[in-house]
Every structure is written in structure tokens, then in C-alpha cells.
Amino acid sequence: MKLFFGEINNEIVTINDEEQQHIVKVLRMKNGEEIHVTDGNGNLASGKLIIEGKKANIEVSEIKRDFPDFSPKLHIAIAPTKNIDRIEFFVEKAVEMGVSEITILQTEKTERKNINIDKLKKQAIAASKQSLRFHFPVINDSIKISDFLKNIDPETTFVAHCHENLERIQLKEIPNLENITFLIGPEGDFSEKEISFLAEHKVKAVSLGNQRLRTETAGLFVAAWNYNKMI
User: Fold this and answer.
1) Is the separation of the CB atoms in 140 and 104 below 8 Å?
2) 204 contacts 159 by C-beta, under 8 angstroms
3) CA 63/CA 82 separation, integer angstroms
4) 190: enclosing H helix or E strand
5) 218, 184 Cβ separation under 8 angstroms
6) How far is Cα 207 from Cα 150, in angstroms, rounded to an integer?
7) Which of 31, 16, 204, 230 is CA-nearest to residue 131?
């Protein structure tokens, strides 16, 4: 399946401008080839490609609506790594494994303050198309952990940290939930002040095993754990 991103308004389907350029200039697709277009909101249009100059359109033969989204929905709030390549790798792979939402957390030990959120959004769309997802994940703007905790549900929010002297439950002890939020700390982990702040907000601490995992590895571990519950 050749899947592209676009808009689906009633019976009118428009391929995204960047996708049109990719079809014409990079893929060099031909008139009449079968293509599929999703709006990232659970809808899918199928039909034949029509190329007119530098423009690419679709002659729609069928529109399927309201594909079900992944369940349970997983929201990972993760601190950015100093090497941005590692967080970009996390975003790509987590999206392939069905994560529903990603938030970039700013913590006391976060070294990287500037994040190109638009680039992460484009990577999420690319990963969604690659893995044939018809619901694109939400990529939120960077936010301070203190502000993020103002809007959480403590019953469905968990944190992975490496403070072994503090009580932590095992992943298998987390009940079946429709929505789950997981906080993943920065390189060097959350500060003791932040751990206390998380406890004040009744966020439950979870152990990811005996090994100390890198930030992006911990995020992918949680994504894979949730993905395993979907299949």
C-alpha cells in the first residue's frame, strides 16, 4: 500500500503539498497508479493517481471512515536527550508501536532546551505512513514538568525513575486502563525535588527492571510493553 497524507473533507480529497512534491519529484510515480490517502484522523481514501504538471491528485474510488484507533492509548512524556538524534529515534519507533501522544518534558537536569517540534511532527507522520497508521499521534510542544503535572489524572499516570530507595511497582502491577500516561526522566534522572513533586501529585513510580536504561530506551521499553497489550 502506498500511503500518503492529505485532507478528506466529505468526498473531496486533497493530497498534502509536500506529499505531492514527493510523489512527482522523488518517487516519480505515474498516472493511474493506485494510491491511498489518510487524514491521520482515522479516514482513508483509495483511488488512482492523477498527475498534472507538478500537481498530484487522486481520483477517488472509495473512502473508508472511522478506522478504530489503538487501545489502550499511551501518552509518553519524555525529557529530551542532549543528542537530539536519540529522541528523534525514539519518536519514530514509538509511533510505529502505536503511541498515541508524546510530550517533551523540561526538567531540572534537561540540558537541551530548544526542540524543533515541527520536525518531530513530520517524523511522526512519516513513521505513521510507514507503519500504515490511519490515526496520527499528537506531538505536543515542550513543557515544564511542573506545568505538565497540573493536568494529569493520577489514577492513570506513572513515572519511571532510578531512585532505588523509593517504592516502585512492577509494570505487571499496572491495571488494564484505556488511557495511560508515562513520564520518562532525563539523562541523570529526575531530581529529588521532582520526585517529591511527583509523589505529591500521587504519580505512581514504576520499575523497568534491574538495568539502568537510557532515556530513549526507557521510552521505547514502555512503548513496546503497551504495544504487546494491543496485539
Assistant:
1) yes
2) yes
3) 43
4) none
5) yes
6) 24
7) 230
Q: How far apart, in whole angstroms, are the C-alpha atoms of residue 181 and residue 149?
A: 11
pLDDT band at 149 (very low <50, low <70, confident <90, very high): very high
The 8-class DSSP code of residue 195 comes to H
Q: For cell 504487546, name the residue.
A: 228
Query: CA dihedral in degrees (218, 41, 138, 224; nearest 10)?
Result: 0
Q: Distance of alpha carbon 224 from its chain centroid, rounded?
A: 13
CB 75 within 8 A of CB 105: no
Give tens-digit pLDDT for 191-227.
Answer: 889 988 998 999 999 999 888 899 999 999 999 999 9
Are 46 and 69 in contact by the 8 Å Cβ rule? The answer is no
Its sign, for the CA torsion 102, 149, 212, 177, is negative
Beta-bridge mates of residue 46? 36, 62
DSSP structure class, residue 172: G
Q: Cβ atoms within 10 A of the Cβ of 77, count?
A: 23
Summarize the confidence of residues 147-164 as an average pLDDT. Answer: 90
φ, ψ for residue 126, nearest 5 deg: -60, -40
Q: Which amino acid is at 196?
A: S
Question: In whole angstroms, what is the distance from residue 185 CA to residue 22 CA?
Answer: 37
